[in-house]
Specification:
The strands form 2 sheets. Strands 1-4-3-2 form a 4-stranded mixed β-sheet, with helices on one face. A 4-stranded mixed β-sheet has the order 5-8-7-6, with helices on one face. The mean pLDDT is 96. The protein is built from 2 helices and 8 strands; from the N terminus they run E-H-E-E-E-E-H-E-E-E. The protein is globular, with a radius of gyration of 14 Å. The protein has helices at 13-24, 70-82, and strands spanning 5-10, 27-28, 36-40, 46-51, 62-66, 91-92, 96-101, 107-111. By secondary structure, the chain is an alpha/beta fold. The protein has one domain: 2,3-Dihydroxybiphenyl 1,2-Dioxygenase, domain 1.
Length: 112
């Protein structure tokens, strides 16, 4: 069995969708709706974003993007940092990893 669909509630759908597209290569389904967006990856994942007010995720909640190498993790870290995101450098934990708060109030882990 394969998990292939996840929905996140976010206060600003376009901002969250643009973030996921720009930094993680998800592709947006064309739509002019500001309250819903479907994004797709190359492995069949469908990530939907739905507009909701006052969204609060638990502190440990996050989504993750596995990378093919530590250098790719470092590249994404640097892009985010250069674009003004508040990110701590990657560290060795369960993997070479770091996290960032995405527009929409959820955390994203990047790891190799």
């Amino acid at each position: 069995m394969k998990l292939n669909h996840l929905n996140l509630s976010v206060p600003d759908v376009p901002a969250a969708a643009d973030f996921l597209e720009k930094y993680f290569g998800l592709r947006k389904q064309p739509s002019d709706k500001k309250s819903f967006c479907a994004l797709f990856d190359d492995d069949g994942l469908v990530l939907t974003l739905m507009k909701a007010a006052n969204v609060t995720y638990p502190g440990t909640f996050h989504i993750g993007f596995a990378q093919e190498s530590e250098s790719r993790v470092n590249e994404i870290y640097q892009r985010l940092k250069d674009d003004g995101f508040d990110v701590n450098p990657p560290q060795r934990r369960h993997a070479w990893t770091f996290s960032v708060q995405a527009p929409g109030g959820f955390a994203v882990e990047i790891a190799a």
